[in-house]
Prior knowledge:
The structure holds two protein chains of two kinds. Chain A has five helices and no strands. Chain A is mainly alpha-helical. Chain A has a single domain (3-75), classed as Arc Repressor Mutant, subunit A. The two termini of chain B are 33 Å apart. Chain B has two domains: 1-102, RNA polymerase sigma factor, region 2, helix turn helix motif (Rna Polymerase Sigma Factor, Chain: A, Orthogonal Bundle), CATH 1.10.1740; 105-207, Winged helix-like DNA-binding domain superfamily/Winged helix DNA-binding domain (Arc Repressor Mutant, subunit A, Orthogonal Bundle), CATH 1.10.10.10. By secondary structure, chain B is mostly helical. The interface between A and B is large, with 38 and 49 residues. Zinc ion binds next to helix 1 and helix 4 of chain A.
Amino acid sequence: MTCTEFLALLDELIDDTISAETRAQLQDHLKGCEHCEVTLNTTRKTIEIYRSHEVYELPASVRERLHAAIVARCKNGC
Amino acid sequence: MATIQVTGEDEPHPDVALVASALAGDVRAFETLIQKYDRQIFRIAQHITQNREDAQDVVQDAFLKAYEKLSQFQGNSKFYTWLVRIAVNESLMRLRKRRTGKMVSIDEDIETADGSVPRDLADWSPNPEQNYSQTELAAILRKTIQGLPHGFRVVFVLRDVDGLSTEETAETLGLSIPAVKSRLLRARLQLRERLSRYFRNKKAGEK
Ligand SMILES: [Zn+2]
């Protein structure tokens, strides 16, 4: 397996949507290829870091404004 | 942060009951749905519009629109994906207004292979967070993801941050499944490459 072939299957490996056979081939490639190992580790970490840190905080005022708008709409009959 | 609940196949999604109550006139049921999803909707709107005011307006308009059209919600898709579709459309509309004359859509073909080939191969994976304050880290993450085309950003956010499936992401954005897959791979690799620029330097600087 070449690095390009490994890269094409990177998402499937990360999302665990591959057959045991393909997984074994990928793991085999990883044993001898530090580049792909680093790519895999840092890509996994990239996903994890975006998943666990809120990049944009919702301002409290948005919630209040929306609440008021919904209540106002309901006064005229929901 | 996958907030989409996975329920058994014969068990109805809890949102189904909330939508039914809201339709029967229970405003609090709809408020529960708002509290459940407003952060995610704001996040998606921010990633598409890249503008704080627009994103705030999108949250407001998307939920009001969903409330108005609630009777049209079919229930054969998840309430959340239905809501996201409304929010994506509202976000694109705002974006179009700002870039008058320029067509903006999620499915525009973005053929940029740039940055998808891993070049920076420092292994910063164990703990890059510990070198930064929360504020610094959030700024880095923001700056990094802002550099991606919005069609990549949105796929990454829905799939990896929100935890939607490939099929749900495709349905929500009106994209084919192969398109979602290829964008996701490129988004992940480009983000990885861009983050490497920050994290590897910090690592090197320490030694
Ligand atoms: Zn390799």
